[in-house]
Amino acid sequence: xxxxxxxxxxxxxxxxxxxxxxSLRCPHRTTISIQSSFYGRIVPSHQMCPSRxxxxxxxxxxxxxxxxxxxxxxxxxxxxxxxxxxxxLVNSRLFGADPCPGTGKYLIVWYKCRPNEYKSKVxxxxxxxRLSCKKSMVIAIYSAIxxxxxxxxxxxxxxxxxxxxxxxxxxxxxxxxxxxxxGKRSCSIYANTYEFGDPCYPGIRKHLNVIYTC
Length: 214
Description:
- This protein is of the alpha+beta class.
- Helix content is about 15%, strand content about 35%.
- The protein has helices at about 1-10, 55-60, 70-80, 175-180, 195, and strands spanning about 10-15, 20-25, 30-40, 65-70, 85-90, 105-115, 120-125, 130, 140-150, 170, 185-190, 205-214.
- The longest helix has 9 residues, at about 70-80.
- The relative contact order is 0.20.
- GO terms for molecular function: carbohydrate binding.
- This is EVA1C protein.
- It comes from Nyctibius bracteatus.
């Protein structure tokens, strides 16, 4: 159980240079959840993915170290999201127009492994959130957000009287939920600023959203 949970909670990072295969894989009963992705080059080739051109040619072309594409996240979602594993060859044709021809690029992917069976619970600000599992099963927290998200929460409609529609989230919500609930059969916590601090402007209504499995 402990090993499985540590794999589920872990943030995975994988990278591949142009011409290499990127391979993402998650443990049994979990699937890939893409968090972020980058394709391009922002560090020189002597630090990452050395140029495959002969040295004489490489010195003639100026390497672009401010090069990225905006389609890499969507491409990774299309290829890998909600699958147990995925693998493909990295090259600029995958991502549309080449943002910097002649410069060797690389792909970096950040992902987590999400349990196939998971539950989601929401508590509005100042309400109590209760989690529980059946007998002989315990709680495994996957993610926790306390604050305000762009889309909001249907369970806790925001009153936007002159308030800007901004995102603000507690940086410690996940650690706090793990400490309070992880490995227990049941637990409860108030969705308030006393527990989580206030990541938003004063007066902005917040909510707590926890994803967990038993």
